[in-house]
Design brief:
By secondary structure, the protein is an all-alpha fold. The chain has eleven helices and no strands. The two termini are about 20 Å apart.
């Protein structure tokens, strides 16, 4: 069950980040390319499939605990806090997929619903809000990278410079919010190596460090080289962005696994 929840949670998280981040990219950087718009549509479609799957898996887990089944199980889950947030996410997805003017402004509060559903929401309002800032910053960064990667080649220097600025601002929120979440969920150093949650967190931190290194190369080397007119710079940036997206997908997978694993202070080793 944990593996299934992690995979479905990863698809949910990745699609939500690509969709919300792409919508915010359109407001902060520039209009998506035709390929970028198609990806936004596919992300919305993926969420329309994954959210019911997530509901079904959560219902199965609830059945294992309570023994309640059938319509009573569905009704109980919908009345629970998680179910109410799930229903609101589904309604919000319908607006995000509509491509109306409300889509981009709604993307940020829509991400809050996911933060409230997870471990951070279980800790209270402040942890959920900080997790929301972390998730929003990640969506802005990864969503903009995805849209940049989908532009026709060679990558335009002006758009790359704008993405560089947006990514730098997102990083200023992402790192401290992520550090807060790590300390919140793993409150002793021994938990990092004596719990599945802690080990998964170490993997995530290692992947995040690699992602930051690639982002630093883009910020300090590739984008400035493009602005200087170096002919090979756009190709180097495109390769680096592709590598960033692969590592980002791995980070999101481990993040989804963390959401499916019990927190170590809830289940001490």
């Amino acid at each position: 069950m944990t593996a299934a929840l992690a995979v479905v949670g990863w698809l949910d998280l990745a699609a939500a980040v690509v969709l919300a981040g792409g919508l915010l990219h359109a407001r902060l950087v520039g209009e998506p390319s035709p390929a970028g718009r198609r990806v936004l549509g596919r992300a919305a479609l993926a969420l329309a499939i994954v959210l019911p799957l997530e509901f079904g898996l959560t219902a199965l887990r609830m059945y294992d605990v309570s023994g309640v089944s059938g319509a009573a199980l569905v009704w109980d889950l919908l009345r629970a806090r998680w179910g109410e947030l799930w229903a609101l996410r589904c309604l919000g997805l319908a607006v995000l997929a509509s491509s109306t003017r409300l889509a981009a402004p709604l993307a940020v509060p829509w991400l809050l619903l996911r933060s409230l559903q997870g471990h951070a929401g279980a800790h209270g309002t402040v942890p959920a809000l900080i997790d929301w800032l972390h998730l929003t910053a990640a969506a802005v960064w990864i969503g903009s990278l995805a849209q940049l990667a989908l532009l026709p080649r060679p990558l335009p220097a002006l758009v790359a410079a704008r993405v560089r600025t947006v990514a730098t601002l997102a990083l200023g929120v992402l790192v401290p919010a992520g550090a807060y979440a790590a300390v919140l969920h793993v409150q002793r150093l021994d938990m990092l190596v004596r719990s599945a949650y802690g080990l998964a967190l170490l993997v995530k931190l290692a992947l995040a460090a690699a992602l930051l290194a690639l982002g630093g190369a883009n910020h300090f080397r590739h984008v400035p080289a493009m602005r200087r007119g170096e002919t090979a710079a756009p190709a180097r940036l495109a390769r680096a962005v592709g590598a960033e997206l692969v590592i980002a997908a791995a980070v999101l997978l481990v993040t989804a696994l963390l959401g499916a694993l019990p927190m170590p202070h809830d289940h001490p080793p």
